[in-house]
């Protein structure tokens, strides 16, 4: 049993709400000095809602609930309890989760608190530790190039995974090939497929999402809020209607967890995915436009300031695109390995590699698959 595991069952709704507040406190970090207030409202028990004040420490106030706050998050008691039962695997992009919640105000503060209530499994903690030792032994910190393989065999791919060595695969593409896909073709083929759920009252079909992308390209803006007003699907589950065209290109479909869609028209001067690492081996297929991945070996964990609260992936506080040596002094020693993916190319990214992703062209589309084992 991981010492980080929270309590999972409660005698009453009130106990669960109080337990949730403690969960947030236990996972809270704030090296960037974010300030603000968030009201956590439980509609079935409004008198037991609370206000979280983000400062150097997280402060929970159970009184004066009518005060004005920067953000309000409404979470049904059933969803709150589910967070405890599934903290190892919960994904706030899941429509069954975010589709039950409501948000208003400063959404960055909501994102900050959401990540505080996650915890890694014992398997993930042990796996990251083992991969770090492997990368150190193989000297991956000093790797200068990512190898390319043209139409590799499944055995070659399994060997890459075993060695924890990233590689770019060429010669494997869906049918029709990636070069034939455009925003208009996506909107035509998958018009009613739901590609993003933002809250209990907001979801988007492919048709609506493509319209938003085109509006953004005509009138771009710089204000981005991860998971909310960023014109990017950010790894939402690939709609079932798209699986036949963009499902895994090798092994069996059952060997992967459900694919994720990364579609959008985000600016090219900021990362589409900030620095993080995954506990499963990932395969990223580039479909429209190009992407650059900046990779850091797992043995550089102490240089990149990863979150202590995480589950399916571990974000980092350090932002390579905006380094702050006063806040993150060790990061100056980190060594980066960069690779560009063109349409039709796929990168095999073994578990544990820290990475940040940049869209070099806009619009942009990728599909990712995570190895189940």
UniProtKB/TrEMBL annotation:
Residues 227-373 form the JmjC domain. PROSITE patterns: JMJC. InterPro entries: Cupin_8, JmjC_dom. This is JmjC domain-containing protein. Transmembrane segments: none annotated. SUPFAM superfamilies: Clavaminate synthase-like. It comes from Tropicibacter naphthalenivorans.
